[in-house]
Amino acid sequence: MIFSPAPRAIWPLAPIAFALLLAALHAGAGTVARYDFSGPVTEEHFKAVIGKLRCLVCQNETLLDSNAELAQDLRDEVYQLMASGKSDEEVIDFLVARYGDFVLYDPPVKPSTYLLWYGPFALFVIGVVALVVTVRRRTRNPESTLSAEERERAERLLREAGEGDEHP
Amino acid sequence: MSGELGHFALILALCLAVVQATVPLAGSYTGNRTWMSVGPSTATGQFVFLAIAFGALMQGFLADDFSIRYVAENGNTQLPVIYKVSAVWGAHEGSLLLWVLMLSGWGMAVALLSRHLPQVMQARVLSVLGMVAIGFLLFMLFTSNPFERLYPVPAEGRSLNPLLQDPGLAVHPPLLYMGYVGFSVAFAFALAALLGGKLDAAWARWSRPWTTTAWIFLTLGITLGSWWAYNELGWGGWWFWDPVENASFMPWLVGTALIHSLAVTEKRGAFKTWTVLLAIAAFSMSLLGTFLVRSGVLTSVHAFANDPARGVFILAFLSVVVGGSLAIYAWRAPHIRGGGRFDFVSRETFLLANNVLLVVVAALILLGTVFPLIYDALGWGKISVGFPWFNKMFVTFMPFLLLLMGVGPLARWKHHDPADLVRRLRLAFGVSLAIGIAFALPVYQGASALMGLGIGLAAWLLLSLWLAVRDRLKHRRGARAVLRDLTTQGRSFYAMVLAHLGVAVTLIGITLVANLEAERDVRMAPGHTYELAGYGFRFDGVRNVQGPNYLAARGTITVFDGDRQIAVLHPEKRNYGPGTMPMTESGIDVGVTRDLYASLGEDLGGGEWAVRLYYKPFVRWIWAGGILMALGGLLAVSDPRYRVRVRRRSTATAGEALAGGRA
Amino acid sequence: MLRYLLPLGIFAALAGFLAVGLKLDPKEVPSPLIGKPIPEFVLPRLEDPKRRFGSADLKGQVALLNVWATWCVSCRAEHQVLQALKESGVVPIYGLDYKDERDKALRWLQVLGNPYEAVAFDEKGRAAIDWGVYGTPETFVIDKRGIIRHKFIGPLTEEKVEDILLPLVRKLKAET
Predict the structure, then answer these.
(1) What is the residue range of A47's domain?
(2) What's CA B24's distance to the chain center, in Å?
(3) Which helix (H) or strand (E) holds B569?
(4) Is the residue at A68 inside a domain?
(5) Considering only CA atoms, which of B51, B27, B22 is closest in space to residue B37?
């Protein structure tokens, strides 16, 4: 049951809450224990590669954490590619050629993802500019409508109340 | 019978919500006191009827009444009682009922606890809450009725998703929903103030305790969710940037900004329109999260059974509430004036900068969360935006916020001599920098630039907090003076210290666990010992254990530190019967400085099992920090000045006079 | 004044995308293989393991390759549609039996009817990976030059056949 029947049949009892029901579907642990890491492929390296790849049939899981059958097959495939000396890029290209960018949790930088990759920096710059403009305007803002007398009274009261005792 | 009772109570609650949404509001414009006084009684009545509906559904679960479809789908006679109760909110319809119940609970609390408010204000706040309730009640009655009957009646229910059969998950959703829904009060106050055109320090003061209370719940809800995921899922992680997690984190960030902004508005009368916008945004983010999670537009680990009609309804509701309130904002906000003068170097500036950063981070998380949808909607295909992207962005922007957090509490309102600020902080900065560099130097295993950054920033936070406390205590020598300060005007200061301390603790936890953790997938035969991070893990085999409603393969792993046995872990794989996936129950030895964690993988035959072992240094600190933040919030809410009906003249008038004398 | 309208504008844009998003299926991942030549493979035939079936057999004609399995629930629903399509004789259908048991698969075809010209038996699912298969059923439309032109994810239905498949097949047949 790889296609839609799987989630539908099991998930009418759908969970609530936010929660990473990660591994919810196929809770996987020790998924790579079956491989031989005494050779050219180390466990860290293998996990680093499959840990950033998305399982296609799961809700939102990495190839590392999924127990779905396809995930298992793809792990085998990746292991064999790595064992045969393929570089990380070649392994990733292999999967992207078959399944598309969807398998990458770390999306590639290309014109269609410029918004994603550079948008946050644009937001940040806009935020900083807005901040500077606002503060500058405020620093020039004439001190409202208080008379000197009122202000003195207010400041005295503030001092009594303990300078700067108000914290968010 | 209970089904019809519940259904009927829902309809009555809806009727009351309609009255609550209209009559007090109309009264507030015509000056009709009788109409306005309808607000509190309808709010209370609405809560009572929803409590009846909720009780009716719970009764359905306790009595195994499988003629109610929802009970048949989520209940089971074999379910332990605690999970029969939590199954009430175990799926879409029931969780929505819980949501509405909480909304009405907040409404009733406002009705009861804000009698000192001007009646016009209270009437409008309650009306806005009534409008929100109408939306949710209609949603429930038309697309997601939990009391729908099922015929023929099945002999047995399909039972609660095994994954949710965990004490953590019984409590987590109510906390989270209290947070989401709680922001509706801040939202209602903001809209009421906008409608009245009177956004003053008093408004901010009324709004603050409500906002902080909602924030406390949300903080605890997120913390508990993260802990549960770590504990329960056997993957050793505590955050995955899944859309559902983001849906809770975005309102938290905006809510955090709101708490800080409200402080400025209350104390200095500044940033009024900004604060109002944040109040609208915090609740909008909560609603947006609901939409994202329940409409099925995003692939999330958290799959509600999706029904397109629901998506359309929530989107329409979202558009009315968010679009409507933003339209009122655009109409009213330009007329709001005021706010005192302040200098470039002043607490106002730092708080505003903090707001900008929090909002930028919330916005980028929103971007990352909905980007796959935008990408697809534009016909560009499918794309995934996952944890690597979020981590990179988060690590890029959060340090700025943490740097500011060090300075803000030390800066004075209005004006602070830059030279003085530099003089106070330079030593702390130098020391933090040195600590950061020391941790980044590759002289020990696990050192990295990120390690240095995290620890350096944590040191910066702690040192600057210490400076702030020292300043505070300069004139308050002795425990009695401190205690007196704590029980009078100083409480909000200590609340801030506690919450910021929580951030530092979480930061230390995240940094250490991310950089120093160790993990191994091992094939283990009984008697076999594996060494990880200096601990020996001996596998003592697996035996079958019968649980109340599951059969478990229970592993035993004995952990040694050298020759000394320090723990016995029992990871399990539970099978809840046909049609369910096996559940992983991890075995964890909890410690202040490290967790040792094991989860059971597949049976490899011949007594051998695949086992995943983890060494998780300081992982508890992540959640301890969350709890500290919530405690800080609690201390702030308990501030006596929120409960003083007749406000003490001194501080109030001082703040407001400085703010432009328009209280 | 305009800056006060900005939040509303941003929300309107977001709501627009969300509305479009409601019509999309987030689980359907389009294949990058569309427009590309079919992946090379040679597999034993289901009905006779000694004979082979491979990518060479698919070339030179407009054809469908249907990925199925006996353990796949929605394949059973799809089967009737395939059967009807075969009877219409519009386009030859080839099968790729994915990670299945030979006996069960043969019995399935015996009982439900055999819509396929030939079925490749992909016991390990290795060829399916090259085809970018991530679920069953999936159906590829291949043109005369051996280029994949379309992929149906999920079961074919009468509507999909009428609205998308048949017009596409007609168009591809007209190509030289």
Answers:
(1) 5-103
(2) 31
(3) strand B564-569
(4) yes
(5) B27
Sheet holding B518-524, edge to edge: B518-524, B608-617, B594-605, B587-589
Question: Taking CB atoms and an 8 Å cutoff, what residues of chain B touch C19?
Answer: 315
Listed in sequence order, the residues at least 6 apart from B378 whose beta carbon sits closer than 8 Å to its beta carbon are: none
Q: State pLDDT tens for residues B331-376.
A: 988 888 766 778 888 898 999 999 999 999 999 999 999 999 999 9
How far apart are alpha carbons C80 and C74 in whole angstroms?
A: 11
Q: How many residues does chain C have?
A: 176
Structural element, H or E, at residue B599: strand B594-605
Which residues, including other chains, have CB under 8 Å from residue B109's CB and lie 6 or more apart? Answer: none
The span from the CA of B296 to the CA of B468, in Å, is 47
* A128 shares a domain with A91: no
DSSP character for B524? E
Indicate yes or no: CB of B658 within 8 angstroms of CB of A155. yes
Q: List CB contacts of B619: < 8 A, sequence separation 6 or more.
A: B230, B238, B509, B513, B517, B594, B595
Q: Which two tokens stand for residue B264?
A: 């400025």
Among the partner residues C4, C24, C27, nearest to B377 by beta-carbon distance: C24
pLDDT in tens, chain C (176 residues): 678 999 999 999 999 999 998 888 877 888 999 999 999 999 999 989 999 999 999 988 999 999 999 988 889 889 999 999 999 999 999 999 999 999 999 999 999 999 999 999 999 999 999 999 988 899 999 999 999 999 999 899 999 999 999 999 999 999 87
For B172, which of A17, A52, A165 is closest by C-beta distance?
A: A17
Distance between alpha carbon B573 and the CA centroid of its chain, in Å?
30
- How many pairs of residues across B and C have Cβ atoms under 8 Å apart? 71
**Domain boundary pick from A103, A130, A147:** A103
| DSSP assignment of B519-577 | EEEEEE-TT-EEEETTEEEEEEEEEEEE-SS-EEEEEEEEEEETTEEEEEE--EEEE-S
Residue B175 and residue B213: Cα distance in Å, rounded? 11
Q: Which of C1, C172, A31, C62 is nearest to B336 (CA)?
A: C1
CATH topology of domain C29-174: Glutaredoxin (3.40.30)
The two tokens of residue B212 are 């902080």
Q: Does B187 touch chain C (CB under 8 A)?
A: no
Q: Name the phi and psi angles at A69, rounded to 5.
A: -65, -40
pTM of the entire predicted model = 0.90
A119 and A56 housed in the same domain: no
Q: Which of A56, A75, A103 is the last residue of a domain?
A: A103
Are the beta carbons of C11 and B312 separated by less than 8 Å?
no
In sequence order, the 6+-apart residues with CB closer than 8 A to the CB of B288 are: B247, B250, B318, B322, B366, C14
Which residue's structure tokens are 């899944």?
A: B242
Contact B376 C15 (CB under 8 A): no
- Cα B185 off chain centre by: 16
In a domain, A137, yes or no: yes
- Cα separation, A45 vs B208, whole angstroms: 50
Q: 């609660």: which residue's tokens?
A: B160
Nearest to B614 by CA among B629, B643, B594: B594
Take residue B144 and report the two structure tokens written for it.
């997601």
- Residue A95 shares a structural domain with residue A13: yes
Counting one residue from chain A and one from chain B, the pairs whose CB atoms sit within 8 A come to 336
**pLDDT, tens only, C59-99:** 889 999 999 999 888 898 899 999 999 999 999 999 999 99
DSSP label at B156? S
Distance (Å, rounded) from C-alpha A92 to C-alpha A51? 12
Residues of B with Cβ-Cβ distance to C132 under 8 angstroms: none
How many other C-beta atoms lie within 10 A of the C-beta of residue B410?
Answer: 20
State the amino acid at position B399 in one-letter form. P
Whether B270 and B342 have beta carbons less than 8 Å apart is answered as yes
What is the distance between the alpha carbons of residues B179 and B98, in angstroms, rounded to a whole number? Answer: 13
Q: Are the beta carbons of A73 and C29 separated by less than 8 Å?
A: no
Instruction: Judge if A11 and A34 occupy the same domain.
Output: yes
Tokens of B337: 């004036």
Domain count, chain A: 2
